[in-house]
Amino acid sequence: MKNILRLFLVVPGLLSNVILLDAQWVKTSCPTVGNSSIAMRGTNIFLGTWNQGVYKSTDNGTTWNPVNSGLASNSVNCFTVADTTIYSGTWNNLYPEDLAGGLYFSSNDGLSWIADTVGLGDNAVTALAVCGTNIFAGTPWNPRTRQQGGVYLSTNRGASWTLVSSSWPVPDTSTFIGVSAFCFSYNATGDTTLFAATSGAGVFLSTNNGATWNGVDPSLGNIPVITFAVYNDNILAGTVYGGQRHHALYLSTNNGNNWSSVSSELPLDTSISVRALAISTNGSGGTNIFAGTDVGVYLSSDNGANWIALTSGLPSNTPIYALAIVPTTQGDTNLFAASYYGVWTHPFSKSVATIALSQYSLGFGPYQSNTLRITNSSQVPLVIDSEYTETKWFTIGSVHATINEGDTISLPVSFEPDTLHQEFSDTLYILSNSFYPITKVPLNGHRVNTAVSQIAPNVPDNYGLSQNYPNPFNPTTVISYQLAKNGFVTLRVYDMLGREVATLVNAWKNSGKYNISFNGQNLASGVYFYRLHAGTYNQTKKLTLLK
Question: Domain spanning 464-545 has what CATH number?
C-alpha cells in the first residue's frame, strides 16, 4: 500500500504558503458550537462539532450550514475521505458515560448520512484512516461494556469490519485503552507502516494491516498521543497533557524506532497539549510545521528546533483542536484553526517568502559557472551566515552579508568535473536567520566528451509539457515533454494534498522530446498533478485516475 493518509491536509509547493508574522487570523461566521475536527472533499470543508453535528462550507469558510440528516449522534470526533464518500466517527455527548455513537458515511457531501453498524455497533469512533482500499477505525474504552478500545479494519468500504488489535502487546491489562489517532508511513519499496496511538498504552505499529503489532520506542512510554503528522521520512506525535510531565511534541526520523522532543521552545512545553498538526512546503524546499496547542498556533520551519507564535488575531490562550490547510478557488491558500470558541482562518495570500531564490536547483555542463540570486522578501533583515557543499566538484563563493528588505545578492557557483564520473550531484546549504535556518539547493553536473557532436535537426525550439494520454486513465498513461536545452530535469507526481506520490524523472537530460509511462496501480482513484522542472521552466498539469 503506497497511499498514505495523514490526519491533516497538505498543500503543494506550487502554492505560496509561507506565513508573514504580521498576517492576522480572521474569525469565520461558523457558530460557536465546540469544534473538534476538519476535513475536505473537493471544494467542500466539513467541520465536526461536539454538540451540533456536522457543518459544511462550500465557499472557503465564508458561510457554514448544518448537514445532519440521518446523523443520530451530534458529537463528531473525526473524519476521513475515501473517493467520493466521507466518513464521520461519533459518540453521544449527551450521555458520555455510555460512549454510544458509531460510524456514519455520506456519499452526497453530507446531504444525508447513513449509520454503518456492521461489526462496529454503537461503539464510539475516535480515529479514522484510509490507506488504499482499507479503512481503519479506532474506538475508545467503553465503560458501559467494559470493553477495551481497539482498531477495526474494513476492506470493503465499511460493508463489514474486523477487530485487528487483539494481538497488540498491551503492557498493563488494567489500563483503559482507547485509540486516539492513526498515521501511515512508507519506505522506498512501498511497504506501509500503520501507527496507532492509544490513550493509555503508548503507540503501536503494524506492517501487515493490523495482523500483528509492535510497540514503538519505549521513550514514549504510555504518553497519551492525540495526533500525528507525516512528512518526508519524519513522523510527528502530538501529546495531550494530563498532569504528568512530558514534552508536547515528539519527532521520529527512523519510522518510529526512536523519538525525541522537538517542543522545548514552545511555551509551557511540559504542561500543554498539541492536539492538531498541519504540514506544508515552505516554498524553498523545506517544510512548515503548524502546531495547534492549548495556547494558540505555532510555526516551525526547522523540524521543531525553533517555534514562532502565530497568534495575532486569536483570543489569548485559545486552545486549538483541529488544523487544515485549504486551497481556495482563487488560487490562494488558507490555514483553518478550529477551537471550542469558533473557527479562524489565516490567509496565505497576504504572505511572501522570507528568503526567495532565483532557482531551487542548479544544473551544470562541464566547466560551467552559475549564479544563484537570493532575495530578502521579508520585513526584517536577512543574515546569510554561511554557504557550503560536501564535495570538491562545486565551488561556492562567499556572500556572508546582511540583506535588507527587498534587496537581492548574487551567490556564484562553479562546477569542475573529474575524469572518473559522468554524473555529479551535491547539495548547497545556505544558513541564515530566516524561517529556514538551512536552505538546501540540489546541485547536478554532467561531464561530456570534448569532441564536437552534431545537434540533431529535431531539437525543439522551446520547452513544453503535454497533457497525459489517455486521461482519465487506468492504470497507465503516457506523459510527453520536450527540452530546448541540455539540463537537469525533474518530473514528479503529487496528490491533491501536495504529497509527492511518484518521481518519474530526476536526471540530466539532453535536449529533445521524451515520453514516459506512469503507472498508478498502487494509487487510489482521484485527481493528481504532475510537474516538470527544467532550468527556469516550470509547468504543472492535472491527470485523473479512474479505477
Answer: 2.60.40.1930
